[in-house]
Amino acid sequence: MVLSRRVARFNRVATNQVLRHVAGWAPGFAMVVHKGRRSGREFRTPINVFRTKDGFVVALTYGPGADWVKNVLAAGGCALVYRRKEIRVRGAELVHDDARRAMPVPIRQFLGLLDVNDFLLLKRE
Known about the structure:
This protein is of the alpha+beta class and 125 residues long. The chain has a single domain (5-124), classed as Pnp Oxidase, Chain A. The protein contains 3 helices and 7 strands. It has helices at residues 5-19, 67-75, 105-114, and strands spanning 29-35, 42-48, 50-52, 55-59, 77-82, 85-96, 118-124. The protein has a 7-stranded antiparallel beta sheet with strand order 2-1-5-6-7-4-3, with helices on one face. Strand 1 (29-35) and strand 2 (42-48) form a beta hairpin. It starts with a helix and ends with a strand.
């Protein structure tokens, strides 16, 4: 049960407007800076991220079809504003993992309740 389009629309209109002010510095959050595939416009999308030994992992709670995910995959990378620093990431890789091994244990359990099994791996440049 990946989150519905209705929830996505609500988050885009309401929740993201609040998160955009804290995502660049709050623990567990980042602002992904990406360019539109067709428009070339720059977009900033608040996301939950978790550090890995060589970069970051993002649980795709709306699935791999979200526009920001498609933009990052098409470009092969993006920038993350993470803890007030802009970090370039590359090698965007979509991973399906039913065991959710890239996530911390308590997060795995929560994502299991939502049936989230898709993740985006990003490596630091």
